[in-house]
Amino acid sequence: MKNAIEHYPYEKPSLDFMQTYLTDAKEQQIQNSCTLQHAWAKVQQPLEQEKQRLYIEEIKQLLKERNAVMVAHYYVEPELQDLALETGGMVGDSLEMAKFCKSHPAETLLVAGVRFMGETAKILSPHKTVLMPDLDATCSLDLGCPINEFSKFCDDHPERTVVVYANTSAEVKARADWIVTSSIAIEIVEYLHAQGQKIIWGPDRHLGSYIQAQTGADMLLWQGSCIVHNEFKSIELEHLKQKHSDALVLVHPESPAEVVAHADVIGSTSKLLKAVTQYDNQTFIVATDLGILHEMQKQAPHKQFIAAPTAGNGATCKSCAFCPWMAMNGLEGCLNALKYQHNCIELDSDLIIEAEKPILKMLDFSEKYQKFNQENKHALNLGAQSFKVWLTEQQHGAKF
Ligand code: 13P
Ligand code: SF4
Description:
This is Quinolinate synthase. It comes from Acinetobacter pollinis. The chain is 46% helix and 12% strand. By secondary structure, it is α/β, with parallel strands linked by helices. The strands form three sheets. It has a four-stranded parallel beta sheet with strand order 2-1-3-4, sandwiched between helices. It has a four-stranded parallel beta sheet with strand order 6-5-7-8. A four-stranded parallel beta sheet has the order 10-9-11-12, with helices on one face. Strand 5 (161-165), helix 10 and strand 6 (178-180) form a beta-alpha-beta unit. The structure holds 1,3-dihydroxyacetonephosphate and iron/sulfur cluster. 1,3-dihydroxyacetonephosphate binds next to loops.
């Protein structure tokens, strides 16, 4: 991996560096300032080879014994991604993870990612045991959107439809009309906008602004952000593009608008990943968590990937695009979770019922939208209005 990003070498930054660097955490008034410190302190260190081998063997054995399957996000450590794939599980973006967890027959789901991913799995499959390597693995978007304040924000605007990004707590999900992930957010908002609905969006302000610009929808935005994507720098990215004029720039829409403005491809982790095989370019500049480079390099081993800069000239670290909470997931945590049934996601049953409704709407929408696109392959760019007409013709009703 190191060779491929030689222009912007990245290393996991030191705790001190991150404390001063991630100023946005302060802007979001994350009350518990220990949260980041705690996360960085728990980031997994590489294991000796022999220990790693033994852990992997034991995890494989336990997955079979417990009728369990492992589901991983693209941002977690490479060995966890590989293990999930080798054992019949999956690696994906957050929408794909949710779909897989819901439909897979295993009794136990081992979710390597952040807490909202484990909670979504539990909400969709309450009868399954959902384990995580570390339950402290949260997300700055979730932390920056406490239920009481968010609920008040919604109560103050009762005429608006509440659309919430999946990176939130189960309580915030239960307050929403719709849940979206980055791979289906534009389509859902476009559809709601076509119905004349005004929207409350939370929590990611950058993703919200991006969707607003794409759809023209009337959206009131909660002011949260992702501490990882918020750090990408536009001017440095522009310089990097000049040096690599043949490179395609891939950007996750949680990044600031001035960074998104430089992108050739904007989208969820899965969409960015697809781009590396879809396009003939040999070089890609990647603005998202660098965990994704593992799968990108597997899929396009002869191509070059350059990490988009997160720091200006003179900084000690040129790209620090690592989510500390994702990096808390490790083999030891997986092993202990399976062995002792540690770190089990537990949610109140009434909360599950309420939080499930808007998630199911998203899954239902996603399935129908996919079908609509397949049936209309010949006509590109059919908008939300056509989808509405198609839904009515299919006797699904125009509303969800
Ligand atoms: P995706 O849905 O694109 O996988 O994004 C999840 C996430 O946390 C991005 O930071
Ligand atoms: Fe949350 Fe950002 Fe980490 Fe994704 S990368 S889990 S949005 S903090």
